[in-house]
Amino acid sequence: MKKIFHFSFVVMLAFLSGCGMYSFSGASISPEVKTFSVQYFANRATLVQPTLSQAFTERIKDRFISQTSLRQVDRDGDIQFEGYISDYRAQPVAIQGTETAALNRLSISVLVKFTNTKDATQTFESTFTRYADYDSQKSLAEVELTLIDEVSKQLVDDVFNKSVSNW
Fold this sequence. Notes:
The chain is built from three helices and six strands. It is of the alpha/beta class and 167 residues long.
């Protein structure tokens, strides 16, 4: 039984390596794609948080470095990311009977232009929005960096999935 399992595993591995696109991270990247580039995501939101642009830009780079075998280049990668932070806001949600908010919500929106120079059909321009709620008893300043980290991870997941996982 053990030999059958090992043989099946080897056959499956050979099949996967023979396919044009595969990945164990969920990404389906064409073998022609070798490089990626990420331009700085400027913050064009009405409310500007000083560290958000750099944090978001670096998080995208880190995701592609850790989850793919693509090589990062400064400009003109086979796949390219550019865009800007379009919205950053904190607002009350979950209003109680006393007309006070039980929760506040930090929302971040990012416009992303993705260019695939090897397959133009995968090129897109989309706005991604994510949010995190926090207790209204706390000020935004108390929880802001933690929330930015949480929301940025979600946004990068969305960008990664749309650009290389074909969802």
